[in-house]
Write a structure and sequence with these properties.
Aminopeptidase; elongated; alpha+beta
């Protein structure tokens, strides 16, 4: 189950606004990459970027606008008066999704030292915390980028890494710097920020309804991650989606989950207050971006899932009839890395190869 809530754009904080890119922004981007390029002296000046091609960028933007990402890796930065002054970005250090890093670019010199950069990065950090389970956010720069070093420290980042003399800029040697800021420290410092604060105040705890062995609610709740007592159970769902060709929609688990890169049907645990059907619909929407029609599904099995040491999961298996073009699926990066339609024979082959996360009812379902 993914963390966070969908953002309603634009995002506002004090004197700035963050929003997805629009086609009109490309005019500014072209100017900043061809004429007003002073900002490049601060932003990784040792890198040589490809020439800015506004036609290619427009094509790329239109493609993204037709299928917006669930979580944005870049947003544009406006002042509260509508002046477009730059953007923010997010990347994963060394490709590791547990190491989320943020950055900011403000090309117009006259837009600096007005608090826009700090407020934008604070809002962007909150957005990233709200859409991931990480407990630390990072930012990286070089020791010659004095404005960024000052900005990072003013926000509350602490230096955790320094590689001396690795960067050569205009004949001088500079250090690579890495800073970190914890979720706890961030929300204690910025308790006035609206977006994402409620998640911190809940400590990102996921609560389950505690059920008895017959699936009846006991009136108690349980915090995910803690062991359940003997005789306590929680609701889980497995959701199988079958198309008109008799194929099943399966997805591949992300690298940061248990059983990384294994294929499976969609599923998850019910949070407190959600019933079985609501959980099935929610998990499919969160992990694959698919909105299923309740009337097209039916529960085909209910059983007790047992692990090595305990039997705590009461599992409802759902089967939905649904046709969808794979290219329109929106994956949740922290949950799934791929999806495809597979026949019964292909799934059985994957089980034999050890690449499909099997279940004790699989033979009954696939026949």
């Amino acid at each position: 189950m993914s963390t966070g809530k969908a953002a309603n754009f634009p995002l506002n904080y004090k004197n700035i606004v963050l929003r997805p890119m629009l086609e009109r922004d490309l005019v500014d981007e072209e100017r900043w990459n061809t004429v007003e390029t002073e900002w490049g002296e601060w932003d990784a000046p040792w890198e040589s970027d490809e020439p800015f091609d506004i036609k290619k960028e427009r094509e790329k933007l239109r493609k993204e606008m037709s299928n917006p990402p669930k979580v944005y890796s870049t947003l544009e930065l406006d002042t509260d008066e509508g002046w477009h002054i730059g953007g923010v970005n997010r990347y994963f250090i060394d490709g590791d999704r547990e190491l989320v890093a943020v950055g900011i670019t403000i090309p117009p010199i006259e837009a600096r030292r007005k608090g826009y950069g700090k407020n934008a990065l604070v809002l962007w950090i909150s957005y990233q915390f709200c859409h991931s389970d990480v407990e630390e956010i990072y930012t990286q720069t070089w020791s010659g980028n004095y404005p960024m070093v000052k900005l990072a420290k003013s926000i509350g980042f602490e230096e955790i890494g320094r590689i001396k003399g690795i960067r050569k800029v205009r004949g001088e040697r500079y250090d690579d710097l890495t800073f970190s800021l914890s979720r706890k420290e961030f929300y204690e410092r910025y308790n006035d920020i609206e977006f994402g604060r409620e998640m911190f105040e809940m400590n990102l705890v996921e609560l389950w309804d505690v059920l008895d062995e017959n699936g009846n609610a006991t009136g108690r709740v349980h915090e995910r991650g803690r062991p359940m007592r003997e005789g306590e159970h929680h609701l889980e769902v497995c959701v199988w989606i079958e198309n008109d060709n008799g194929e099943y929609l399966i997805s591949q688990r992300s690298r940061n989950k248990a059983f990384p890169h294994m294929w499976e049907c969609t599923g998850g645990s019910a949070v407190a207050g959600d019933d079985s059907l609501a959980t099935a619909l929610k998990e499919v929407k969160e992990e694959l971006g698919i909105v299923l029609e309740p009337q097209n599904g039916r529960m085909i099995r209910h059983h007790l899932r047992c692990g090595n040491t305990e039997c705590s999961g009461l599992v409802d298996v759902w089967l939905f009839r649904h046709n969808i073009d794979i290219s329109t699926i929106v994956l949740a990066p922290d949950e799934t890395r791929d999806a495809k339609w597979a026949s019964r024979g292909e799934i059985n082959r994957m089980i034999n190869e050890g690449t499909f996360k099997t279940f004790n009812y699989i033979d009954e379902l696939l026949g």
